[in-house]
């Protein structure tokens, strides 16, 4: 793939947008451990972010990528000053509408996380739910971390959360082919495989359209181990990098499904 609008994550390709929003809204959650629907999961995650970060009221938070704004809106409802950044216009349009409905004042910005240009503006940057490693090169993926670092004020905090943890995958505990019931009655099939050579998860989602035809969209994400990710954070300038396995501050373990990293500028 040669230019950005052919990349799996681009708006033009169509993995993100209506396809993703439909597939993300499953009756049961994405994690093996807990069966939470999307709304419950969002509340758990926002409670978790606030439990792990030490934030004063009205702190400024950059949520990148914000997706359709689920964390941004909940954080704004709790009094934080939020900027929601994402590349996808459809996600951002839904986010804006939902924010208005909730009287949540949020600045939504359409931009590529590779090109962020914030300088010492935020008390916290959050990167939620398996949203790191989208780019083909380690160089580009670390550029995103450098952008997050630059966006933070001195002593600002960064939190990355993913439900993908390599030792958990290698122990055979990760689901590689599953079908989830969606709230709209459709079903989502997810198939993926970890490639230890490229260190990427390559997969696809299949949804049926209104005529019953299958639509398949692929993705490919570089998955970093805890050690690799902390190393990238340190190279970007972060200090005090800590790894957790859940929102209750349980230290990272190879058995954990989630991996949460908190670091400071
Ligand atoms: C897995 S979703 C997670 C979104 C949100 N954090 C959540 O938990 O709902 C990943 C998001 O990344 C966005 N995205 C993909 N590539 C991007 C890029 N290059 N720059 C900015 N956002 C991007 C997608 O549009 C999508 O909204």
From TrEMBL:
Alphabetical list of CDD domains matching this protein: AdoMet_MTases (cd02440)
Organismal lineage: Bacteria, Candidatus Nomuraibacteriota
Species this chain originates from: Candidatus Nomurabacteria bacterium CG1_02_31_12
Domain named Methyltransferase: residues: 61-156
InterPro entries cross-referenced by the UniProt entry: Methyltransf_25 (IPR041698), SAM-dependent_MTases_sf (IPR029063)
Pfam family, one: Methyltransf_25
Coiled coil location: none
Entry protein name: Methyltransferase domain-containing protein
